[in-house]
Design a protein that fits this description.
Residues 35-173 form the NTF2-like domain. The chain has a single domain, classed as Nuclear Transport Factor 2, Chain: A (Roll). Helix content is 34%, strand content 24%. It is built from six helices and five strands; from the N terminus they run H-H-H-E-H-H-E-E-E-E-H. A hairpin with a 2-residue loop joins strand 2 (111-120) and strand 3 (123-131). The protein has a five-stranded mixed beta sheet. It is of the alpha+beta class. Helix 2 runs antiparallel to helix 3 (58-68) and helix 3 (58-68) packs antiparallel against helix 5 (96-104). It has helices spanning 5-18, 39-54, 58-68, 78-84, 96-104, 164-170, and strands spanning 69-76, 111-120, 123-131, 140-149, 155-162. Bound molecules: 2-acetamido-2-deoxy-beta-D-glucopyranose (NAG) (2 copies). One 2-acetamido-2-deoxy-beta-D-glucopyranose (NAG) is lined by residues 94-95, 97-98.
Amino acid sequence: MQIFATVATFALAACGVAASPTPSWGNWGNSGNPNCVSRSYIEGLIAQEIVFLQHKNVTAAVAAGNAIFDANIAEYGDSINSLRGAPLGTQVEFNATSYIAETTSTPPIPQIDTLSLTVDCNQYVWQWRFYGIGPGPNPYIQGITLGKINAAGKIYYQYVEFNSLAWAENSGYKVTPPTSGPYAAPSA
Ligand SMILES: *[C@@H]1O[C@H](CO)[C@@H](O)[C@H](O)[C@H]1NC(C)=O
Ligand SMILES: *[C@@H]1O[C@H](CO)[C@@H](O)[C@H](O)[C@H]1NC(C)=O
């Protein structure tokens, strides 16, 4: 897992405004707020989420999903709505039961890499790269997940956005640009 310097910078800024009389290195993990979860806790959730999303082993994937998701997890994201043909703004998932069942019934994902992770108290932005979606032609699909964690330490909200045009191409959609008009692709 690659961790970028911007995250440390963010934690530093958060400590700066906390105005604690006894600044502690230990507080850097949770922005100095005991009501915030630590970065390492969120890293653990994401490691489990990768097992879930890849679902190379469905038994392990279901267990991981049940471990990290609140039963009433809500997922949103218009990249998925566009791929599904659903109106923009439609809620994508309403509970862990159907989210886990839908995900583990799709083809497994060979590799998921973390590109960056930014943590802010009980929410985070995880930037990821999926390899091996569909037959191609794109080698990878890249996107972000905004996640939120409840008091029980479970993920109860996800907002997912990614390159759905590349995902569509990889899963067999034919994507052709207009040949005329103001949005026409420039001629080669
Ligand atoms: C799949 O995961 C389960 C649960 O962790 C484990 O018991 C099982 O051995 C795994 N199967 C394989 C083929 O690795
Ligand atoms: C979970 O959500 C689906 C819709 O995505 C719904 O059909 C199903 O009834 C829900 N299940 C539970 C247990 O709430």
